[in-house]
Known about the structure:
Radius of gyration: 20 Å
Number of helices: 14
Structural class: alpha/beta
CATH superfamily: Alpha/Beta hydrolase fold, catalytic domain
Largest sheet: 8 strands, mixed
Strand content: 5-15%
Low-confidence stretches: none
Amino acid sequence: MPKLALVLLLLIAAFAALTSYRAGAREAQSETDYPPEGQIVNVNGHSVHAVVRGTGPDLVLIHGASGSTRDMTFSLAGQLEKEFRVIVVDRPGFGYTPRLHKNGETLAEQAALLSAAVGELGAEKPIVMGHSFGGAVALAWAVHHPENVSALVLLASPSNPWTTPVDPLYRVTSSTLGATFIVPLITAWVPNSYIANALESVFTPQAAPTGYSEHFGPGMTLRRHSMIANARQRIHLLPDIKALIPHYGDINVPTEILHGDVDTIVGLSIHSDLLVDQIPDAQLTVLEGIGHAPQHVSQPDVIAATLRVAKRAGLR
């Protein structure tokens, strides 16, 4: 029995070492295949990755959960840069913006970091557009830094409380044990095709655009620090949203809200249908038959709303 136990321990140790090596190798390969698209901005010693394109009024684009600048640069940024100076940012923990700390960044912390970063790029009062989780960051930006925003565009954004429990995977991977033991297993052994297939569900009932997965880089999502950041931020999201709600009435910049009526990830009825009455003079565009990715499948509506809000803000 002692010999068997020793053999088992050696096998476990060998598998753990192989897993750690494979996870590191896959992360390195992903970063080689998908290098930074833009520049690194320093904010009080913390790096923020930002892509800057075009000329005109400043417009910040903030990606959702498990994303990066590549979600917005796939096609939307290229359309908007014809009318705006577009600044696409990586939220902390994703792409090439490191985590702020190990506990998971709150909406307020993310908004503070990103508003400071675009300020370093000369964007003092940009229009701020956020998709999904990025929309919640945009709301926190408007609440906590009203002097640094001229207008909001919110795409399928969570904004009000919900009752569904946190996904068990997030509960596991946000814990210390899960981050130590489960996340490396996922990074090392889950194929990139799994993430590519999961992306398809985000677009339902539409299909992901041709070439989106290849541009997005599924392996970047599987990096250990990104998975942990996503899980811990997701755990914070509901209490952070609840803390923002009492301040929505103080948002006094033009706001355009776009939301698909068949979005099963962030439901229209419990979020944007309420938010439009919570922010003074907000305007809601309900996108019929559209799911959770209007920045890709409803681009004409998104562009039109951005031009409208720029005009309402006196920027055009």
